Amino acid sequence: MDSISQYVLGAGIGVAVMGRRTAVWKAALWGGIAGTIPDLDALIDHGDPIRNMTFHRAESHSLLFLTMLSPLLAWLVTRIHGEAPHFRRWWLAMWGALFTHPLLDTMTIYGTQLLQPFSEHPFAIGSVFIIDPLYTVPLILGLLATGIDRGPRRLRWNAAGVAVSTLYLGWSLVSQAWATQVAERELAAAGVRTERLLVTATGLNTVLWRIVAMEPGGAAYREGFWSPFDRGRPIRFDRFASDRRLFGQLRGNWGVERMAWFSHGFFRVERRGDVATIADIRMGQEPNYTFTFDVARWRANPGWAEVRYAASGTRGDTAALLRWLWPRLLGADLPPPRERAPISPLPDFALPARRE
User: Fold this and answer.
1) Using one digit for the tens of pLDDT, what is the confidence trace for 46-95?
2) How many alpha carbons lie under 13 Å from residue 183 in its C-beta half-sphere?
3) Which residues, in sequence order, are bridge partners of residue 280?
4) Cα–Cα distance measured from residue 93 to residue 72, given in angstroms and rounded to the nearest whole number
5) Are residues 285 and 200 part of one domain?
6) Res. 312: pLDDT tops 60
7) Residue 317: predicted pLDDT
8) Among candidate residues 172, 205, 231, the one where a domain is terminated
9) d(CA 118, CA 213)
10) Measured distance CA(104)–CA(346) in Å, rounded
11) Residue 312 sits in which domain range?
12) How far apart are CA 270 and CA 312, in angstroms?
């Protein structure tokens, strides 16, 4: 999630755990600091954009390492404020703020390596977008109300903010499961074979879902969108190509192999002139993907030569996407803004209407 969400979550955890044992501002300040510490790894330059992407949310997001850090941070806080008698409670507060950071990140689609150093597996649920005001605002309001209220029950505002934001995450899982069930049912009814299916939240909401269905072998994939406000209208899928022959030629290229692994197989390989690129198609939507990288250049001899990896992604027309997002979320039958046409023979693949 974004830094603001992580800070206010950490602050809310700090206030909730410390209660009346310390000043609210101290608990919120140090909880927020602890809640943002894991993302300091973004300041590390690993040498190229693919390493920077895939090494982010690694050791710094390890549940084990953060657990080990928590008593050290608690010791520092108690030394600064002279609150040694409350060391155990500060330890719990710091652990809670640190520990919930990678758990919240796991709710996004990026990929968080929770089990470092035992496993590099990037866990990614994808039930919330990286920025979602409906998650963050309750936490902010709860903290503000707690700071303003001087009554004996002031802490209830913070507790309410944490509870509402947590319930929102629960709703996101329910909504995602609903969208997944609909997508699987429609694809199966149409006899469409898929190798893997991705259902992830679109920007700033958990109502409109982006669905990506990879065909067996990965030579093509379909992208569609579903909202519960579609009221039974079939999901419309557009079909796009990924050059898996080119992928085969690039096997052994570290950046290509790394991106194929990190994206859980949801990637697109294509040739742009004499440059080969790979894109993580989990983040963005056709045809614009932020995490797109140049990975090789064609040479007459010996063929595809690995180059210094360079970012070549784009976010597209953000204003156009936002203008489309709200009416589409509410069920309007609007095609997504495209800058290139889907591939034939299925330029406009729509499943038959469901029988209620």
Assistant:
1) 999 999 999 999 999 999 999 999 999 999 999 999 999 999 999 999 99
2) 28
3) 267
4) 12
5) yes
6) yes
7) 87
8) 172
9) 31
10) 38
11) 190-350
12) 12
